[in-house]
Amino acid sequence: MNNRAYLIVGGTGGIGRAMIKQLVDNTASDNDNKKTDNGEKQDIHVFATYHRNIPDFEADNLHWISMNICDEQSIQQAAKVIQQQTPHIDWIINCAGLLHTATQQPEKALRQVDTEFFLQNMQVNALASLLIAKHFRPLLAKSARSNDKPAVFATISARVGSISDNQLGGWYSYRMSKAALNMGMKNLSIEWNRSLKDVCVVVMQPGTVNTQLSAPFQGNVAEGQLFSPAYSAECLLEVLNRMTAAQSGSFVDWAGESIPW
Ligand SMILES: NC(=O)c1ccc[n+]([C@@H]2O[C@H](COP(=O)([O-])OP(=O)(O)OC[C@H]3O[C@@H](n4cnc5c(N)ncnc54)[C@H](OP(=O)(O)O)[C@@H]3O)[C@@H](O)[C@H]2O)c1
Predict the structure, then answer these.
(1) Does 70 fall in a domain?
(2) 108/18 Cα distance (integer angstroms)
(3) How far does residue 15's CA lie from ligand 1's centre (Å)?
(4) Is residue 203 included in any domain, yes or no?
């Protein structure tokens, strides 16, 4: 029996929820009969974290765990709980993120920069992935993997985190936190290339996706360019499926195209 385990962080968000649906729908209906390429039976489990919003769907092979990515103890605790249920995780995808809150919108100009909102962006968008990597490393280390079929540590970043692609300015906190995330994940890919072989560390741009995060900013999106969460999730999972360990440290979009740092 070939066991595969996925972890989706931010499982009640627009993209995270669609990722889980995709993974569960592809596997839950005939989980017992699922076969790998070489005909081996696959037993697939999806672990998913939620924060404030309570999950609104279930499946036999879906396991929900509460986790606040701004609280290192909560991350550590979630890793412990998952360790009691699976010896390894093969793919971790962090789909949690922050662009605006009930009281704060992304900055249009310098005068709107606010320390608390800036630090909140840094904590959710940049630091969290590092802490997740720190506490879930032992579970990734136990995954069966190779260069061609690596374990995956992916985070949804954003094209606006690209420094060289910045044409419009604005959104200081979000842009800076995504740029910091990108640097953190590049660093991690270098460290793990030495000490945790065959793990592909990736940051991804999901497209402009119809979720609560993008809702206030969809006005200027060209026709046909606003993706459904399901379409974005399907594309991102396909891209990850094609990744090799040699591509660790990549910043790619939903179509697998490289984005300049
Ligand atoms: N939508 C787009 O067009 C777009 C474009 C580029 C990049 N992205 C990136 O894609 C990712 C997913 O975005 P989305 O559109 O799916 O947004 P979303 O629907 O707002 O989902 C964001 C998720 O992050 C979770 N989260 C926020 N703070 C958290 C915390 N402290 N602890 C745990 N979870 C936390 C939220 O959970 P709670 O609400 O329960 O706290 C929610 O599940 C984000 O990183 C975003 O920056 C999105």
Answers:
(1) yes
(2) 30
(3) 8
(4) yes
Tokens of 243: 């990744």
Residue 258 belongs to some domain of the structure: no
Is residue 137, in this structure, part of any structural domain at all?
Answer: yes
pLDDT digits (tens, 9 = 90+) for 210-248: 999 999 999 989 888 999 999 999 999 999 999 999 999
Q: What is the enclosing helix (H) or strand (E) of 232?
A: helix 229-242
Phi, psi of 209 (to 5 degrees): -115, 140
Q: Which protein residue has the closest C-alpha to ligand 1 atom 21?
A: 13
> What global pTM score does this model have?
0.96
11 Cα–ligand 1 center, Å: 9
Asked if 128 and 69 touch (Cβ cutoff 8 Å), the reply is yes
Q: Which domain holds residue 94?
A: 2-253
Which residue's CA is minimally distant from atom 24 of ligand 1? 96
Q: Whose CA is nearest to atom 47 of ligand 1?
A: 97
The residue written with tokens 């066991």 in the block is 3
96-126 pLDDT, tens digit per residue, is 999 999 999 999 999 999 999 999 999 999 9
- Residue 211 alpha carbon to ligand 1 centre in Å: 9
Rounded Cα distance, 61 and 23, in Å? 10
Task: Please tell me the distance from the alpha carbon of residue 233 to that of residue 251, in angstroms, as a whole number.
Answer: 16
- Please identify, by atom number, the ligand 1 atom nearest to the C-alpha of residue 125: 45
User: How do the residues of the chain divide into helix, strand and coil, expressed in percent and rounded to 5?
Assistant: 40, 20, 40
Query: CATH code at 196?
Result: 3.40.50.720
Tokens read off for 63 = 């396991």
Number of folded domains that form the chain: 1
